[in-house]
Task: inverse folding
């Protein structure tokens, strides 16, 4: 039998971490080398150890988030295979991970394939990006009825930005942002900017980079 692949995981949710530990320990292809509740501990571990595979949850309550940790580890140790994971519906992380060359991305609610198979394919050189979650109720509509631009506006809105600040980030006129928000409110029936931001954030539908890196939220168990 070939030597099993060594695996390190970091997830601040006890249930999710236990689920991954169980699958790794029950599969002879893998060896659980370490399991951490923070991405910082995984980042530190990789400075002195060299696992074959690292699984990182994106959102963390404390310290550096999983995406930022993955970018650092990938830059320093490109031969360590990395799987980013989340149970949230935020899709912008997928684009950021792809652009950075992160090997695989696992939406925990996806039924594409079981985690051990994603791990095995990643170790065999494949890049596995599971399908994004289906739309969820968001006011009067399903979240997948929102356009990419509307989701981008919501993402900045959850970060507390004003219309002019969002317009500057998106390189459009403030009136364009106002129109996007009016259309979102018309679709959803949600009449308050604050309520839009709170609901989008709680659903994990739109999360600003500031909130991700500040550890203001955590994946639901």
Result:
């Amino acid at each position: 039998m070939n030597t099993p692949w060594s695996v390190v995981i970091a997830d601040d949710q006890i249930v999710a971490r236990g689920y991954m530990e169980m699958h790794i320990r029950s599969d002879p292809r893998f060896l659980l080398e370490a399991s951490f509740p923070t991405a910082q501990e995984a980042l530190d571990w990789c400075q002195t150890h060299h696992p074959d595979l690292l699984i990182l949850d994106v959102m963390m309550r404390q310290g550096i988030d999983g995406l930022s940790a993955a970018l650092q580890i990938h830059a320093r140790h490109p031969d360590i295979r990395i799987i980013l994971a989340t149970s949230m519906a935020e899709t912008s992380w997928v684009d950021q991970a792809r652009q950075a060359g992160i090997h695989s991305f696992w939406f925990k609610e996806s039924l594409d394939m079981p985690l051990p198979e994603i791990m095995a394919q990643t170790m065999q050189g494949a890049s596995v990006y599971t399908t994004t979650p289906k739309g969820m109720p968001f006011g009067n509509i399903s979240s997948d009825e929102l356009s990419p631009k509307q989701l981008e506006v919501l993402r900045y809105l959850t970060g507390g930005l004003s219309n002019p600040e969002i317009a500057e980030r998106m390189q459009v006129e403030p009136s364009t942002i106002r129109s996007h928000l009016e259309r979102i409110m018309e679709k959803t029936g949600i009449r308050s900017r604050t309520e839009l931001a709170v609901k989008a954030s709680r659903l994990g539908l739109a999360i600003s980079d500031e909130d991700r890196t500040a550890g203001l939220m955590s994946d639901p168990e």
